[in-house]
Amino acid sequence: MGATDKQQGATVSPLESRAGPGVSGIRIVNHFRKRWTAFGSTALIVAGLLAGVGFAAPAHAAANTVVSLTFDDGNADQLTAEATLRSLGLVGTFFITTGWIDQPTYLTTANLQQIAADGNEIGGHTVTHPDLVSLTPAESTRQICNGRVALMNMGFKVTSFAYPFASEDPATEALVKQCGFNSARGLGDTSSKDPASATLPAADTIPPANPYVTAAPDEVDSTWTLQNLENQVTHAQTTGGGWVQLTFHHIAVGTDPTLTITPALFNQFATWLAQQKTAGTVAVKTVDQVIGGTQQPAVQGPAVPPPPPPGTNMIQNPGLETLVNTIPLCWAAGGYGTNTPAFAVVSPGHTGAYAEQLTLTGRSSGDAKLLPALDLGGCSPTGTPGHRYQLKAWFKSTAPTQFELYYRVGNGYWKYWTASPLVLAAANWTQITWTTPPLPAGASGISWGLNIQANGTITTDDYEMYDVGP
After folding, report:
1. Per-residue pLDDT tens over the stretch 79-133
2. What sign results for the dihedral spanned by CA atoms 71, 334, 345, 125?
3. Residues 269, 156 share a domain
4. Do 262 and 182 fall into the same domain?
5. Would you say residue 53 lies in a domain?
6. Rg of the chain in Å (alpha carbons)
7. Is 73 exposed, middle or buried, given 0-12, 13-18 or 19+ CB atoms closer than 10 A?
8. Where is region (Disordered) located (predicted)?
9. Nearest by Cα to 413 from 367, 371, 380
10. Are 148 and 205 found together in one domain?
C-alpha cells in the first residue's frame, strides 16, 4: 500500500435495483477475436474487390452443399423459427444452455420436447454459458459434461456441442470429447458478409477436418440481410460445396439489439432454402446428421468444491495475477444496457504485476464490470442462504462505482441481487468495503464486481470476500 492509498471510498447514494436484458440482467462479453483477423490486410484487399457481389447458384448444381441451421442459448423466441421450419419441412439444431431451461424468456422443457418431436436436434451449450477457456479445467468439465447429462436425463439424444462465445482451445476440445460429444461448433472460420473474412473457405468439409471445432461463419446478427444469408449458401455452391452452418440467437423484433433477426427475414430465408432443397441444389440437415456416429454414454462432471473455512478469502485469483488472454482466470466481463465496454490488463497492479482496466464508451444506459465467472462454483463463491458477506476491492476510476451482486439459483440460473451505495471516483488506489444483506433463500452461489455507469475508466484489483454469518 502506498502513501496515496485510502482505506474507504466516499459514499454518495444507493443505486436502484435494475434487471437488464439477457440472462438475469447481465450481458457476458465476448473478448475473443475472430479467427480471420489474423489473415491481415490481404483479406481486406480481396474483399474490396468482392464488395457487393452476390453468388448465383449454378443452373444444374448437384446437392453437394449441406446447410445446418443452428440456434444458440434456448431463447423462447426461437419457437417462431421452429414453427417456420416445421411448416417448410426443414430441421435444425438447437444448442441449449441447460441452466436457463424453464426460466423467463427461455424455452421450457415442454418446448424442447416438442422441438425434438418435430425432428430437430437438441445439442449442448454448457450449463451457464461461460467462456470455457477462462475457467479452471474442473469447472469447464462440469459445464460441458453436466449440461449434456441434464439434456440426456430429459430423454434427448445429445451428440453435438457449441462453444459459448466460440471460445475454445485444444484443452477445451479434449474436454468436449471426454464428456461424450461427437462434435463441437466454432465460429468465424469460414467466410461471411464481413469483408475481412473473404479469404477464408466458403464452407467446412464433410467430414470436417476437426470435428471438435467445426468451421462456421460469423453468427447471424441484426445487420444481416436476405442477400447475406442466401450468399452463404450460394457461395459454397459455386466453390465446390461443403457444409454451411448458420448460427441464430433471437428471432424477434425489439429484443437483443445485435443478435436478432426478424421473423419476417427468417421466414424469407427459410422459404428460399426450402426451394433450394426441393430443386436438389442443397440438403438441409442437423449437425448430428452431418457428423454421424452413435451417442456416447453420459459422463458426470466433478463435484463442486466446498466453501473455504471461515476467515478465508472466498475469491479465486483475487489479485488477477493468473491470466487467460485479456481476462484473469476465473473472471468474466459483464454488463447490460447500451454501451461499449473494453477490458485490458494493465501493469502494475495495486499489488502484484496486474490489474484490470475497463473503459466504457457510447453509454446511453446500463453498465459494465469485471466479476467472478457466472459458473457452477469452480470460480464463483459458494453461498449459504441467510448469511451475509463482507466484500472488499481496490479501484481507481473517473466515474462513481459500486458493488453489483448476482446470485445463482436452481440448476445454474443467475439473477440480479442488489448493489451497494455508490462511491465517488478516485484518482488514486482506493479500497471499498461493504457487507451484503442476507443471501436470499434458494441461492447457492454469488458473483459481484465494481461497475461503471458512465463513459470513462475504472481499474480494479485485490478482491476479497468473507462469510460473516447470519
Report:
1. 999 999 999 999 999 999 999 999 999 999 999 999 999 999 999 999 999 999 9
2. negative
3. yes
4. yes
5. no
6. 23
7. buried
8. 1-21
9. 380
10. yes
